[in-house]
């Protein structure tokens, strides 16, 4: 990307993350590391050669790093500098929501994106807990938990969740977007464990008045 060559923090930031797809790659990695194939599948229309270029660019600026996965698999993850972009992405998501067309039939939906938005909106409830969200149709699994007054949302799975919420991706997206008082109120979704955790989280989000999409 050609530099703006301006003595301005905004221009400098755009020199680094202003290219098409770059911020969306960072968004994908907010919930944890992914392989090249997983990134490409989630992003959809991004050509593989352009994805490789963007990842190389982000590594150059120490926003993304390579990690060794199981076997010979290579994973991509945010560095500490990359993680510092999270509040910027969340602010963009809150602003962009005003222009979103929720009834669009063309716009793709993705459980990872929905849970990224959930991470933006969620508030601590002064209670340590472990919530697991699992999609039956894609085998994706995500963890939402509070520890020492801080909320975390990441990809992963655990056998010791306090509450397990399961369903197909589309139904789970509706749950985390709309935050009904009980997750099991959504058709096709089952909740096993202490559902008061979800109820308390949903109430905290409703009180905060945060918008529903990233």
Task: Explain what the structure shows.
The chain is of the alpha+beta class. The chain folds into 2 domains: 9-84, Winged helix-like DNA-binding domain superfamily/Winged helix DNA-binding domain (Arc Repressor Mutant, subunit A, Orthogonal Bundle); 102-208, Nonspecific Lipid-transfer Protein, Chain A (2-Layer Sandwich). It is built from 9 helices and 8 strands. It has helices spanning 9-17, 22-28, 36-43, 48-60, 80-83, 86-96, 111-121, 169-178, 196-208; strands spanning 34-35, 64-68, 74-78, 129-135, 141-147, 150-155, 163-167, 190-193. Strands 6-5-4-7-8 form a 5-stranded mixed beta sheet. The protein has a 3-stranded antiparallel beta sheet with strand order 1-3-2. Helix 7 (111-121) runs parallel beside helix 8 (169-178).
In short:
By secondary structure, this protein is α+β, with helices and mostly antiparallel strands. It is built from nine helices and eight strands. It has a five-stranded mixed sheet with strand order 6-5-4-7-8. A three-stranded antiparallel sheet has the order 1-3-2.
Provide keyphrases for this structure.
alpha+beta, 8 strands, Arc Repressor Mutant, subunit A, five-stranded mixed beta sheet, 214 residues
Radius of gyration: 18 Å
- Provide the domain count: 2
What's the SSE pattern?
HHEHHEEHHHEEEEHEH
How many helices? The count is 9
Which consecutive residue ranges, at least 5 long each, have pLDDT under 50? none
Which fold name fills CATH's third level, the topology of the largest domain? Nonspecific Lipid-transfer Protein, Chain A
Keywords: DNA-binding, Transcription, Transcription regulation
Protein name: HxlR family transcriptional regulator
GO molecular function: DNA binding
Domain HTH hxlR-type: 8-104
